[in-house]
Design a protein that fits this description.
2 domains, alpha/beta, 11 helices, 44% helix, TIM Barrel, eight-stranded parallel beta sheet
């Protein structure tokens, strides 16, 4: 199926009140343009440099959501145009976003990220850390950020019951936070949960934003898979007694390099290794 057909299929599955964020990270402009032609306007990226390059070269009515882990020293590059930052996982980050937004004379919409997964690699506040941060009320002095809701990622597992429980816990916490600190804030209404493999469970738990990538654009090679295949060719050791001439060594290195590139391209295009 084409990207346009995939988008139509996903949208037909979303109930009213749930918005699709098409996760276009690592995909070329051509893929985004195809989705754009199909009517999609909201895209999610996880790398500052990549998102900025796409913002500069693609139509300006695209709404860019930053969905990755954001470093404080890179905030300034996305502040002028970002529509929503999903992953605010510390008070320090919130402070810096407000600082850079003030310089740009903007009010930037943000979501607080909660750690709900049984994985150490995920970022986010614990429920208690979030309560403590909000109860301190220091965030209320920030005039250039708007906290619009919460975001969380469930454990990457085939255990559907575990995924449901994690999403439901975040949904319940969302209601608690809204009632306690944002009861009169009509803008506090977003709950960003669910990706390609679990967005149905997220919607059932109350998600208003689903981040769908592979079901629209196809499967990309994962970072671990790429890292397992990629290495610095200059560190490849050979028994130089068998390759006394330098060009022999370089020839072998080039063969390895292009083999790796071909394998990764096949993984990206077809979703599996050609092995």
């Amino acid at each position: 199926m084409s990207i346009a057909e995939n988008i139509k299929k996903v949208l037909n599955e979303l109930p009213q009140g749930v918005q699709l964020v098409a996760v276009s990270k690592f995909h070329p402009n051509e893929a985004i343009e195809e989705a754009y032609s199909a009517g999609q306007r909201v895209f999610g990226e996880s790398k500052v440099q990549e998102m900025t390059a796409k913002y500069e070269s693609l139509p300006k009515d695209i709404e860019w959501h930053f969905i990755g882990h954001l470093q404080t020293n890179k905030i300034k590059y996305i502040i002028p145009y970002v529509a929503l930052i999903h992953g605010v996982d510390s008070y320090k980050l919130l402070t810096e976003i407000n600082k850079q937004a003030a310089k740009a004379e903007r009010t930037v919409n943000c979501l607080l990220q909660l750690h709900i997964a049984q994985e150490e690699t995920k970022f986010g506040f614990s429920f208690d850390e979030c309560r403590e941060m909000l109860a301190a009320n220091e965030w209320k002095q920030f005039k250039n950020i708007r906290i619009c809701g919460l975001m969380g990622m469930a454990t990457n597992t085939d255990n559907t019951e575990q995924i449901k429980a994690e999403f439901c816990s975040l949904s319940s916490f969302f209601q608690e936070v809204k009632a306690t600190w944002f009861a009169d804030a009509e803008w506090f209404r977003e709950l960003s949960m669910g990706m390609s493999h679990d967005y149905h469970e997220a919607i059932a738990a109350g998600s208003t934003l689903v981040r769908v990538g592979s079901k629209i654009f196809g499967v990309m090679a994962s970072r671990k898979e790429i890292q397992s295949l990629s290495f610095d060719l200059d560190t490849v050791s050979f028994e130089m007694r068998d390759y006394p001439v330098s060009w022999h060594r370089r020839f072998v290195q080039c063969c390895i390099y292009w083999t790796i590139r071909t394998v990764i391209k096949c993984r990206v295009k077809f979703g599996k290794f050609p092995l």
